């Protein structure tokens, strides 16, 4: 087959941030396939120069609006690691709830608002209003509201949380709020399953494409890891020396992108819900396992489009987990604790958490209460190379399709990764004094 | 009356303010009844070239962004700056403390970025430093209720009312224990209200994300600083997070 | 009087919490401070507290209060808000009870506020005698550390027991029903006195002047004292002092519309006289712009304006303002003590005039009546006349000089002078100049559309005083709008013989700005009427037969020798800058100040002397005015300066 194809998606829509897809095929020959990231760089590392450690959390939260809780928690873990602060059990549980809330919010937004339109054959969620899918849409909105309100309850605000501070929380929810939230979470299980069923009915629209790659994420001994754990890989297994995370996450610069790329022992790897699922699926809560089964999801799944399905599975898991965490808080009655006092003034610390799009690392050097060096490894950066290599392998397989179909398939690939490009354009690697 | 065409655009930002539109939840359905959303890259594929109201999120950092926003201004009847990055520059202006070359070297080191237009940055500008802004929705992120009020006002042909008083007014109404009493340095007294004092209400001091009041009572600030053993330098340092200016803040 | 053990008191309170017919709120800790909040268990109650962050006024005039809901999909659909379940408030200190009694004077005795009244009736107050004294409080020296009435029950802690003083039938019933009490012994009753003396000794802060007359006269003699300038230079203009004050009750009203553009509500929220925009009107003018004046205003309200009006010091010495004020300049105690040291510096004597008319009618407070636009007539480029009629076709029943508050739901409410003369005709006119949101919206309405009207409001002209007199009407700009009501009343055949010669002086900006040109033409034709018109500027090519110049330039054209100043009344209505000059002209031709009447413009928001925005020193422009006798108001510093 010899034909010309030219795809130039200038700013992929329904993703967070600015990314371009460029494909140039002349007489069947692939001249160029490129995943470009032209987002304006924002220089967060420079911003942190000389800031007090209390300011690092609120500033790095502003790296990304969608995963601001994740950045906040990675930032706090790094700061607390540097200054030897250990938070209370109560704070620990509350932070796990915070991460659940954000994961739910981000996943349902991605599934419902960003991916679903492709599956239902529309350009955005708006045309779904009044369509036969309205019921599913309203349930998605309802679950999105619940996720946000859980974050509001724990963090004071869902986007750019307020109560997350060094040493714990500036304020905690009341027992009454927790009880009400538990009830709402319990009531949300049915609509979640309904949304899953609705997605299942159109799941055949997800392209059947597989490419073997490496999956990296946090794992823990006794739970499906989000807040705590060690770095794990489907290729190389556990890596427990967390302070040397750069041995696993090797970043490099490419010319078509203001964001960095990363690799480990292959040419690329993937992080995110699918990576976590591939690494930790045995530790999912029961209802989440049922949903995985419903979609026929099994580890290791090498189809990047299934990332969205892994997100649905995790959404259910987060609900189940939140109910358990709230029970744990109610068992010991919630106390109005003050944040733990910080006694050290200097140190180096690393904070690693799983955020909706994958494993996130913050590292700080703090001298006399002021930050002197920061590094940050963003999930989406770790996925850029994998997107590029997926495209390179995918395009020859779909060249027989129309230009429009090729374009859509490539866009859907990018969307499946749920890239968070605002995040990924913040290099945080350089020493400064 | 035909529905006004509304477009959302983002520049250097975290896109958290646009996310607040999605966070309107069920009310987003009311919004799309009320206006015709013609461009909103974060959630829709379609895009139109003309619009009545353009909401701009983010700061302007590069010549290519400057060109783009001027183009948007040409097509928009009303231009609204959405969120701190757009209204005052916000956290993006922290780096304006240093000149661009210094910052670039710090961030990119020896990597080859010269001649790459994506990296061609100048000191961060708020939107009104580049084009005329008709209305402001302050905050980091914006307050959803205020966004709704502004939209409703614009549809009804009203001038949106943005508070001219400090955060303290709302903080007092919320019956918070004053952050100064708790030994924290709060910018509430000199910051424009409208956020319902959300940070102090959640136990954290105000960082000034809605911008400093038009005419803050700077002389009396010294009085307060002295009382709480703080210095003018401390205050300038606190103001850097959202309100860095070359002049005194 | 009864006595109860601490344990049984807790049982009593828990029983109240269990009773689902009540909402129970009480004093609890919040960080290191205290607040009134919903009570879950008696254990949370902290009756030994010193002072709460906010006073109990938040239960009667909430921070944000929904006054009414409206539905914009219908032409005129409004439903006043219902007041919630009965409330029991536990742990109110005596000074806060006194503050509520003061607020009652304003909100119940003068033009009843329905919402406030319902909440007051709906609430039982269980007070508690002060056990710990806030370091900022000076209630002891004001005698507000104890109270004999104003509560349903009063608790006094005597060791491990409390004495309960019964203050009302309702309170007594609660005790009978839920509390395990004994009759208090004589010794226990005597203990109360001891406890109060004990408390009095705990106050470190004392105000040197303790009586209402003392505060009032001290402030009067210090109006121009430099202390206002000095202290206000440290003020952050945050109005925290008024927010936390138990006796501050000024408010603002705003309309909220939801994104569905159907449901909306009118919200009342606390406002503060220290805020810059407090006195700002639609046209952008700010009547008390100088921070020094705003700063002084608050103290004068506490110790002179409200004091002269109601007889009490509108400060109960709780000290909340001092706690809230970061630069620590808010305490009335400090100011009074400072002033009493210095004696009088800069005396001014009039801040207050007695209200003449008392209105207590329905349809005046909050919820407007529906009126229909019957006619729209464009008068000039900027001004349009709207003829309105109530849906029940009842006449407005106004006097010349009165005004109405006109509402458009979703946009808001603003005051407009009534332009038509009093009449039995159900229709009345307002003339509107396009300056702000409300007026812009009004200009988009059509015939038969509805608006809301509250009124007539304010003090109009007392026509009896004009009987048998010559009258000079001087108006400038939009001042002609309300003036027309007065002129047409006088020229009405039924009334014409009551008045003698009528002279009308009227100045507008440009020929095209002259209002009521057709009316003026008919007035001129009447017997014994002189009309003199002038414009500030007249462009080439504009047709104009009158004078060019300010309205004061018309005075030489009056045949002065034909004026009998002792038998002449003058009325002046116009922009603020005009008064001084016109009044001087009137005085020059021999007219006495008491024969001059003015109508003033301020930010008249509530129209019933509560919200505080229109105050000219101690005078509510909306209630005592807008029509004033010049002799009475001329010495009010804020009236013309």
What descriptive keywords fit this protein?
heterotrimer; B: 249 residues; alpha/beta; Rossmann fold; 2 domains; five-stranded parallel sheet; 5 strands; 11% strand; C: 641 residues; eight-stranded mixed sheet; 19 helices; 28% helix; 24% strand
Task: Tell me about this structure.
The complex is a heterotrimer of chains A (433), B (249) and C (641). With 433 residues, chain A is α+β, with helices and mostly antiparallel strands. Chain A has a single domain, classed as Cytochrome-c3 Hydrogenase, chain B. Chain A contains twelve helices and 13 strands. Chain A is globular and about 70 Å long. Chain B is α/β, with parallel strands linked by helices and 249 residues long. Chain B folds into two domains: 5-156, 3-Layer(aba) Sandwich (Rossmann fold); 167-243, no CATH class. Chain B is built from ten helices and five strands; from the N terminus they run βααββαβααβααααα. In chain B, helix 3 (63-75) links the parallel strand 3 (51-57) and strand 4 (76-82). With 641 residues, chain C is of the alpha/beta class. Chain C is built from 19 helices and 27 strands. Chains in contact: A-B, B-C. At the A-B interface, helix 1, helix 2, helix 4 and helix 5 of A face helix 1, helix 2, helix 5 and helix 8 of B.
> What portion of residues of chain C is helical?
25-40%
**What value does the average pLDDT of chain B take?**
88
The CATH homology group name of the largest domain in chain B: NADH:ubiquinone oxidoreductase-like, 20kDa subunit
Main β-sheet of chain C: number of strands, strand sense, barrel status? 8 strands, mixed
| SSE run of chain B | EHHEEHEHHEHHHHH
Oligomeric assembly: heterotrimer
Question: In percent terms, what proportion of residues of chain C is strand?
Answer: 15-25%
Strand arrangement, major sheet of chain B: 2-1-3-4-5
Uncertain spans of chain B: none
Q: Largest interface, counted with CB-CB under 8 A?
A: A-B, 60 and 58 residues
Give a quick account of the main beta sheet of chain B: strands, pairing sense, barrel closure.
Answer: 5 strands, parallel
Number of strands of chain C: 27
Brief description of this entry?
The complex is a heterotrimer of chains A (433), B (249) and C (641). With 433 residues, chain A is of the alpha+beta class.
């Amino acid at each position: 087959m010899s034909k010309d194809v030219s795809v130039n998606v200038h700013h992929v829509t329904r993703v967070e941030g600015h990314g371009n897809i460029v494909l140039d095929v002349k007489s069947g020959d692939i001249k160029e396939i490129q995943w470009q990231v032209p987002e304006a760089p924002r220089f967060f590392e420079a911003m942190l120069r000389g800031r007090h450690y209390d300011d690092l959390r609120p500033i790095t939260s502003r790296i990304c609006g969608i995963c601001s809780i994740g950045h906040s928690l990675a930032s706090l873990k790094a700061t607390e690691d540097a200054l030897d602060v250990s938070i209370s059990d109560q704070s620990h549980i509350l932070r796990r709830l915070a991460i659940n809330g954000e994961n739910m919010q981000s996943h349902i937004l991605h599934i419902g608002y960003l991916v679903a339109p492709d599956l239902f054959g529309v350009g955005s969620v708006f045309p779904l209003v009044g369509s036969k899918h309205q019921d599913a849409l309203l349930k998605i909105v309802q679950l999105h509201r619940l996720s946000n309100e859980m974050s509001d309850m724990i963090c004071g605000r869902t986007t750019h949380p307020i109560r997350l501070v060094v040493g714990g929380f500036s304020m905690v929810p009341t027992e009454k709020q927790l009880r009400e939230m538990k009830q709402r979470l319990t009531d949300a299980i049915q609509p979640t399953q309904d949304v899953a069923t609705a997605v299942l009915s159109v799941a055949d629209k997800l392209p059947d494409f597989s490419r073997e790659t490496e999956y990296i994420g946090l794992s823990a001994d006794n739970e499906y890891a989000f807040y705590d754990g060690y770095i794990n890989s489907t290729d190389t297994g556990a890596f427990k020396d967390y302070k040397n995370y750069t041995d696993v996450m090797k970043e490099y610069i490419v010319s078509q992108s203001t964001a960095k790329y990363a690799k480990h022992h292959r040419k690329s790897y993937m992080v995110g819900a699918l990576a976590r699922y591939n690494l930790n699926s045995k530790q999912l809560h029961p209802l989440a396992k049922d949903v995985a089964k419903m979609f026929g999801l099994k580890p290791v799944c090498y189809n990047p489009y299934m990332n969205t399905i892994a997100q649905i599975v995790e959404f259910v898991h987060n609900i189940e987990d939140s109910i358990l965490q709230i029970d744990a808080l109610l068992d010991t009655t919630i106390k109005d604790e003050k944040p733990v006092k910080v006694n050290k003034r200097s140190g180096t610390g690393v904070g690693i958490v799983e955020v909706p799009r994958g494993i996130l690392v913050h590292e700080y050097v703090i001298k006399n209460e002021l930050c002197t060096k920061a590094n940050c490894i963003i999930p989406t950066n770790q996925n850029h190379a994998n997107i590029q290599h997926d495209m390179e392998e995918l395009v020859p397989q779909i060249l027989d399709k129309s230009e429009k179909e090729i374009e859509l398939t490539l866009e859907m690939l990018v969307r499946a990764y749920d890239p968070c490009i605002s995040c990924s354009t913040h290099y945080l690697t350089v020493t400064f004094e | 009356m035909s529905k006004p065409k509304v477009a959302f655009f983002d520049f250097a930002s975290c896109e958290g303010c646009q996310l607040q539109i999605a966070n309107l939840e069920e009310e987003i359905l009311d919004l799309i009844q009320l206006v015709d959303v013609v461009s909103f890259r974060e959630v829709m594929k379609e895009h139109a070239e003309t619009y009545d109201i353009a909401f701009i999120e983010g700061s302007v950092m590069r010549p290519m962004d400057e060109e783009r926003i001027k183009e948007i201004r040409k097509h928009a009847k009303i231009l609204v700056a959405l969120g701190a990055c757009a209204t005052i520059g916000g956290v993006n202006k922290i780096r304006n403390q240093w000149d661009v070359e210094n910052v670039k070297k710090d961030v990119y080191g020896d990597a080859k970025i010269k001649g790459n237009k994506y990296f061609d940055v100048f000191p961060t500008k708020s939107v009104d430093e580049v084009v005329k802004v008709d209305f402001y929705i302050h905050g980091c992120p914006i307050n959803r209720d205020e966004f709704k009020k502004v939209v409703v006002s614009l549809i009804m042909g009203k001038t949106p009312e943005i508070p001219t008083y400090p955060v303290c007014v709302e903080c007092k109404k919320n019956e918070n224990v004053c952050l100064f009493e708790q030994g924290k340095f709060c910018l509430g007294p000199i910051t424009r209200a409208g956020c319902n004092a959300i940070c102090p209400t959640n136990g954290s001091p105000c960082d000034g994300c809605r911008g400093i009041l038009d005419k803050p009572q700077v002389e009396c600030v010294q009085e307060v600083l002295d009382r709480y053993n703080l210095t003018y330098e401390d205050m300038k340092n606190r103001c850097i997070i959202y309100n860095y200016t070359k002049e005194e803040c | 009087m009864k006595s109860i053990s601490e344990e049984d008191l807790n049982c009593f309170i828990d029983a109240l919490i269990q009773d689902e017919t009540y909402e129970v709120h009480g004093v609890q800790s919040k960080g290191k401070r205290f607040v009134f909040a919903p009570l879950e268990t008696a254990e949370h109650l902290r009756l030994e507290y010193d002072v709460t962050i906010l006073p109990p006024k938040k239960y009667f005039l909430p921070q944000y209060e929904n006054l009414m809901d409206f539905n914009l999909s219908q032409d005129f659909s409004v439903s006043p808000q219902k007041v919630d379940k009965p409330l029991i408030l536990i742990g109110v200190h005596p000074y806060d009870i006194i503050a509520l009694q003061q607020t009652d004077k304003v909100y119940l005795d003068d033009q009843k506020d329905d919402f406030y009244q319902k909440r007051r009736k709906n609430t039982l107050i269980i007070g508690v005698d002060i056990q710990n004294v806030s370091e900022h409080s000076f209630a002891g020296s004001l005698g507000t550390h104890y109270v004999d009435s104003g509560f349903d029950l009063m608790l006094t802690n005597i060791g491990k027991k409390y004495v309960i003083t019964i203050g009302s039938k309702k309170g007594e019933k609660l005790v009978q029903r839920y509390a395990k009490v004994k009759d208090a012994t004589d010794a226990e009753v005597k203990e109360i006195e001891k406890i109060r003396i004990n408390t009095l000794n705990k106050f470190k802060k004392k105000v040197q002047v303790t009586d209402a007359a003392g505060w009032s006269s001290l402030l009067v003699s210090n109006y121009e004292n430099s202390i206002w300038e000095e202290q206000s230079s440290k003020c952050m203009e945050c109005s925290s002092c008024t927010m936390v004050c138990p006796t501050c009750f000024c408010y603002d009203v705003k309309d909220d519309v939801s994104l569905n553009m159907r449901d909306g509500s009118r919200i009342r929220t606390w406002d503060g006289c220290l805020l810059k925009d407090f006195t700002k009107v639609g046209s952008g003018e700010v009547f008390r712009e100088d921070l020094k004046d705003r700063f002084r205003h608050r103290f004068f309200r506490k110790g002179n304006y409200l004091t002269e009006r109601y007889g009490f010091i509108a400060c109960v010495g709780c000290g909340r303002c001092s706690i809230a004020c970061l630069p620590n300049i808010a305490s009335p105690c400090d100011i009074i003590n400072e002033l009493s040291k210095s004696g009088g510096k800069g005396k001014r004597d009039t801040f207050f005039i007695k209200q003449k008319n008392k209105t207590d009618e329905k349809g005046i407070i909050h919820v407007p009546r529906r009126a229909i636009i019957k006619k729209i007539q464009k008068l000039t480029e900027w001004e349009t006349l709207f003829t309105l009629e109530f849906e029940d076709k009842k006449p407005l029943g106004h006097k010349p000089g009165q005004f109405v508050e006109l509402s458009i739901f979703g946009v808001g409410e603003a005051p407009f002078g009534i332009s038509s003369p009093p009449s039995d005709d159900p229709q009345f006119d307002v003339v509107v100049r396009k300056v702000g949101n409300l007026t812009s919206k009004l200009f988009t309405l059509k015939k038969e559309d509805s608006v809301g009207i509250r009124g007539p409001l304010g003090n109009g002209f007392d026509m009896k005083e004009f009987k048998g007199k010559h009258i000079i009407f001087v108006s400038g700009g939009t001042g002609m709008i309300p003036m027309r009501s007065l002129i047409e009343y006088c020229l009405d055949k039924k009334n014409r013989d009551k008045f003698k010669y009528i002279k009308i002086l009227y100045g507008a900006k440009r020929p095209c700005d002259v209002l009521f040109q057709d009316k003026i033409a008919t007035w001129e034709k009447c017997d014994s009427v002189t009309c003199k018109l002038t414009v500030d500027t007249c462009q080439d090519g504009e047709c104009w037969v009158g004078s060019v110049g300010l309205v004061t330039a018309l005075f030489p054209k009056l045949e002065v020798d034909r004026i009998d100043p002792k038998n002449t009344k003058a009325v002046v209505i116009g922009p603020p800058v005009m008064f001084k000059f016109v009044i001087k002209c009137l005085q020059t031709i021999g007219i006495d100040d008491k024969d001059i009447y003015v109508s003033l413009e301020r930010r008249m928001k509530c129209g019933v002397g509560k919200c505080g925005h229109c105050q000219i020193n101690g005078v509510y422009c909306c209630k005592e005015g807008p029509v004033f006798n010049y002799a009475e108001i001329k010495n009010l510093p804020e009236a013309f300066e």
